[in-house]
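Bumping my old thread because nobody answered last time. Still need a sequence for this structure:
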């Protein structure tokens, strides 16, 4: 709105008053603006753009940069004629974003004849995850649960999505791992999100590629980091000994392991109560790729003195040494029955014989009697009494004494008796026969 002032002029004898209208200048001071397309992502190059459009005539490029009060040098300056005296001035400041840039204020100042104006931009830095740190075993035993931990630190803005894959790229079911988050402020005042992922798996020797990978994908920046671990899966070292350790019989112990490791020498060795043994046979079977099955056999004739001896198989692999042990519990069949009693009896007069069966270990032997022609003698005519004791080999020995009472006639079958012992554990059978002469009763 116009303003009015009074002007007074004095002439001789006359005073004249003039009304003067003052019209103010209409001018619009141009304002600079700053743009920064996209996020400030740590480690990436960023360009801040400051621009202003003005019709004022300037001697020098009008835009300058500062950061928290310290002057900066522009990376690039451009002047574009819009129309007539109107020009667009653009100033670029390029930098590689650092976490320490977080919260810093960048100021663009426009120095024009009409005055000085400013625009400011405060940087909020987004930082992707650090490399995942994976801990856990590099060698595991098949069919035994194992645990690995992946720690993903350093994500700012939002946490990272943490997940696991097998070495062949197949995704591991999320139900097998658990993610726990933790937030804190770092020295640059960044809100850092840390995730700890715990994976529990029971692998087999056929686990894909024998590898694991922990992935971290940042939600804000889509930055992805991965750490891979090679996992060697070995089978459980095992010893088998089919059937019982029976004294007097040949026995073969078999030790085997499946491994994907490369070995220079056959990896299995034997020992017995600390003393080295020589394997009877060794076999290597290729399962697939670099997976091999190693088999070692130790053969020997079982002796009662082998009872409670410990046979150990040791697997010497690049990943380490493992052992498996087998303690021998010897089963021993009965000794030959010892029959005592008369070899000549009088018909129709009661007579008694005794059969002692010693030496059975594990369980007692079944003791019974037969006539010479093979017919079984009624069990009601004899009585078995057992006795147990430990022998010098610490075998639990079962001894049976069977007492037979008979009244024979001159027509008794074949005039013979036999005492049988059949071992319950080993099915070993022993027999002792006696020829009996039956004479007529003197009358």
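Sorry it took so long. Here it is:
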């Amino acid at each position: 709105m116009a303003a009015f002032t009074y002007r007074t002029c004095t002439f001789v004898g006359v005073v004249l008053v003039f009304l003067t209208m003052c019209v103010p200048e209409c001018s619009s001071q141009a304002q600079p603006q700053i743009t920064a397309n996209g996020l400030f992502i740590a480690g990436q190059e960023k360009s801040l753009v400051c621009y202003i459009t003005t019709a004022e005539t300037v001697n020098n490029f009008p835009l300058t940069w500062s950061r928290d009060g310290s002057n900066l040098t522009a990376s690039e300056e451009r002047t574009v004629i819009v129309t007539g005296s109107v020009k667009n001035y653009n100033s670029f400041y390029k930098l590689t974003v650092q976490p320490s840039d977080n919260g810093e204020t960048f100021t663009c100042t426009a120095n024009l004849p009409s005055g000085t104006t400013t625009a400011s931009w405060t940087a909020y830095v987004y930082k992707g995850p650090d490399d995942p740190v994976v801990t856990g075993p590099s060698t595991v035993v098949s069919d035994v649960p194992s645990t690995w931990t992946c720690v993903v630190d350093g994500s700012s803005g939002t946490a990272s999505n943490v997940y696991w894959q097998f070495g062949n790229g197949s995704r591991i079911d999320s139900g097998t791992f658990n993610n726990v988050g933790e937030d804190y402020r770092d020295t640059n005042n960044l809100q850092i999100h840390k995730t700890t992922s715990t994976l529990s798996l029971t692998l087999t020797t056929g686990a894909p590629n024998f590898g694991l990978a922990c992935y971290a994908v940042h939600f804000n920046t889509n930055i992805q980091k991965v750490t891979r671990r090679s996992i060697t899966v070995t089978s459980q070292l095992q010893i088998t000994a089919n059937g019982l350790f029976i004294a007097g019989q040949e026995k073969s112990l078999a030790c085997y392991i499946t491994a994907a490791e490369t070995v220079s020498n056959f990896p299995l060795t034997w020992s017995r109560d600390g003393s080295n043994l020589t394997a009877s046979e060794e076999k290597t079977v290729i399962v697939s790729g670099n997976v091999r099955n190693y088999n070692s056999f130790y053969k020997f004739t079982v002796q009662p003195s082998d009872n409670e001896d410990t046979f150990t198989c040791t697997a010497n692999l690049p990943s380490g040494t493992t052992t498996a042990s087998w303690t021998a519990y010897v089963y021993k069949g009965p000794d030959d029955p010892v029959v005592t009693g008369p070899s000549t009896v009088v018909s129709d007069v009661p007579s008694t014989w005794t059969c002692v069966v010693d030496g059975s270990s594990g369980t007692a032997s079944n003791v019974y009697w037969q006539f010479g022609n093979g017919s079984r003698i009624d069990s009601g005519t004899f009585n078995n009494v057992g006795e147990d004791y430990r022998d010098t080999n610490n075998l639990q020995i079962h001894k049976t004494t069977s007492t037979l009472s008979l009244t024979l006639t001159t027509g008794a079958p074949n005039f013979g008796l036999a005492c049988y012992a059949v071992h319950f554990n080993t099915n070993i059978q022993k027999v002792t026969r006696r020829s009996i002469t039956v004479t007529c009763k003197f009358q």
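The radius of gyration is 51 Å. Let me know if any region looks off to you.
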